[in-house]
Every structure is written in structure tokens, then in C-alpha cells.
Design brief:
The structure holds 2 protein chains of 2 kinds. Helix content of chain A is 75%, strand content 0%. By secondary structure, chain A is mainly α. In chain A, helix 1 packs antiparallel against helix 2. The longest helix of chain A has 31 residues. Chain A is elongated, with a radius of gyration of 17 Å. In chain A, 56% of the residues are buried. Chain B starts with a helix and ends in a 6-residue tail after the last helix. The longest helix of chain B is centred in the middle third of the chain and has 25 residues. By secondary structure, chain B is mostly helical. Chain B contains 6 helices and no strands. In chain B, helix 1 packs antiparallel against helix 2 and helix 2 packs antiparallel against helix 3. Classes of the chains: A mainly alpha, B mainly alpha. At the A-B interface, helix 1, helix 2 and helix 3 of A face helix 1, helix 2, helix 3, helix 4 and helix 5 of B.
Amino acid sequence: MTLSIFLIVSAALFCIGLLAALSRRHAIFILIGIEMMLAAANINFIAFWRFAPSPAQPIGVMVAIFSIAIAAAEAAVGLAMVIAVYRHFRTTNVDQLDRLKG
Amino acid sequence: MSAVAFVIIAILTLAAAMAVATLQKLMHAALSFAVMFLGISAFFFLLGAEFVGLVQVFVYIGAVAVLIVFTILLTRHDQEKTRGFNWSGVVVALAVFGGLIWAITKTKFLQSAPRPIEPITVHRIGELLMTSYVWPLLCVGVLLTAALIGALILVMEDKGQ
């Protein structure tokens, strides 16, 4: 196990999250794609901490914990927005949410 | 041993992530989202960050996945109307992946093997949270409160009008 193999796996996860955020039509799955990208960043934090020259200071662990907390807040607000949009437009398909389109 | 574990976890995680990105049935995709986060927390266990792995399981599988399932059930799924795949997204994702792989393989890292460390205990993490990281902890507390109130206000029915 080397650092690069972890970075490659997290890059693959990030790109699958990007794919989900860009190509899904359902608003919830766009949020899920963003969550996947955040989780890939967390893997990077932990991997860089573990392979650092001085891993005795758990800086990466602390950053990952704060990152998880912020991701949870983002998920709560995002899903509340999905429900509010659904209540207003009766759909969660982002292709049909084109009220502001010129 | 850990190399075998790494390969199994990586295949499971990436397969679940592909299922999330491509499955047409929303509920199956939401459940494979939970499987993917289980794989990610297995990565954290493999790297020696057990506390973060447990927090990941609690927060994502216990809270966020359940929240997503609830949201899917509360909103009507009209999967027939959704057109197929947006291929420009695939192109963009592949381009970003190629760029990241190029950057990772070109970089020379300082060392290849992880150094042995004593495990990061919960006691140590709690001590750090209360000493050096107390301001970030307070800021995250304020952020979580604001997010909670904001989410409640967003979904509140406006009966006043």
C-alpha cells in the first residue's frame, strides 16, 4: 500500500461523484454526488496524515472530523431545499426547474 | 493481508459508487450509497483512523442515508420522465480523472510506507478538541445550529398567509 494508490482510489471516487452530480436528473442524487466528492476529500486527508513524515500529530483526523460535520450540515440544508422545491414545483427533476431561464 | 483487504474494499466502494451514479431505481441507488460509505469507513479503519471511520458510519449511514431515503419517499419519483444519461457529464468526469491521475503519477512523494504509530485514542481526540481545536469546535457548533434552524425554516409550511 502506497500513498498514490489511496490517492488514485479517492480520485476515482471524486470523479464518480462528479459524474453523478453532472449527469443525474434527480436533485437528491446531485446532492449525493456532492457528498461523494466530500468523502473522497476525507480519504485524502486521512491518507496524507497517515503517510506524513510525522503522523504523531493527528491533524488529518481532526480536519476529517470537522469536514464530516460540515458535510452533515450541508446534507440537511440541501435535502430541506429539495423538499421545499418539491412542494413548490411538484417535481425534483432539475431539467424541469427552468423558471429563471430566459 | 492488508493489500488484499485494500483491493476488496476499493472494488466494493467503487462499484457501489458507480451504482449510485447510474442506477435508475432511486431506492436501490440510495441503498448503494450506504454501502459506499461503509467502504469508505473501511478505508479509514485500514489507515488507522478508527474514530473517523466510526463517525463516518454513524453520521452517513445512520443519519444522512436515512434522511435521503425519507426524502425520496416524500417526493414523487417520476423516473420514466427522466431522460437517460447526460454524456457531457461523463466526458467532464473522465477529463478530471485523467488530469488527477496524471498529477498523482507525476508527483514524487517523500516516502512510500506508512510509519508505525500508536493508535489515536478517543481520549486524545477529545483532549485536542478541548484545547487546540476549541475554536473550530465552537464554530462547527454554531454552524450546525444555524443549519438545523435553516433546514427547519426551509421546510416549514407558511400557514400565516
